[in-house]
Amino acid sequence: MKLEDLSTGPLAKYGAAGAVTAISLLLLRRWIAGGVCRSKARLEGKTVLITGANTGIGKETARDLAGRGARVVIACRDLAKAEQAAAEIRSTTGNGNVAVRWLDLASLSSVRQFSREFNEREERLDILINNAGIRCPWQGTAHPPRKVY
Ligand SMILES: NC(=O)c1ccc[n+]([C@@H]2O[C@H](COP(=O)([O-])OP(=O)(O)OC[C@H]3O[C@@H](n4cnc5c(N)ncnc54)[C@H](OP(=O)(O)O)[C@@H]3O)[C@@H](O)[C@H]2O)c1
């Protein structure tokens, strides 16, 4: 076999196709995963409101922001789960300034009640993170009955 056969033969073509596919899959995976915030900016004196922070991405975001010194209000529909998450965030970050409020986004009356109470009780809002949600919309809102998108 000649040297030029190695660079133009079927093995080289399959190798190149494999490499292109692997790189494309890697890029696609990174694109789907989205960006990562690596900021270490301190947030003392700032108030953060984050919905659905008793679990998942919301909870880890709340933990990061509490760790950076912010007052963090987590707005959740299940108060027991929310209190448990808040206690865990307080103990892992050493920031006791983590508050729990009830909010069920499937009910507009709950949203109104939450907003009223938030305005009454909090002096400021610096960062709002609309995290709560679902990817498969088979649940409906309570008042009036509608689909959640
Ligand atoms: N994970 C991913 O790969 C991914 C990718 C792209 C986008 N997202 C989006 O990122 C967000 C968080 O994702 P995740 O994976 O962390 O989800 P998750 O673990 O399922 O957490 C969703 C949070 O939203 C809350 N929630 C759902 N419906 C609510 C309602 N009606 N009122 C109040 N809270 C409600 C849940 O409360 P309960 O615990 O009471 O159910 C839970 O705390 C979602 O909006 C999701 O669509 C996620």
From TrEMBL:
Please state the span of the N-terminal signal peptide per the UniProt entry.
none
Q: Which InterPro entries match?
A: NAD(P)-bd_dom_sf (IPR036291), SDR_fam (IPR002347)
**Could you tell me one molecular function GO term of this UniProt entry?**
oxidoreductase activity
Q: Which UniProt keywords apply?
A: Membrane, Oxidoreductase, Transmembrane, Transmembrane helix
Domain of life of the organism in this record? Eukaryota
Membrane-traversing stretches: 12-32
> What family does the database annotate?
Belongs to the short-chain dehydrogenases/reductases (SDR) family.
The identity of this protein, by name, is Retinol dehydrogenase 13-like
Organism name: Acipenser oxyrinchus oxyrinchus
- Taxonomic classification, please? Eukaryota, Metazoa, Chordata, Craniata, Vertebrata
Gene behind the chain:
RDH12
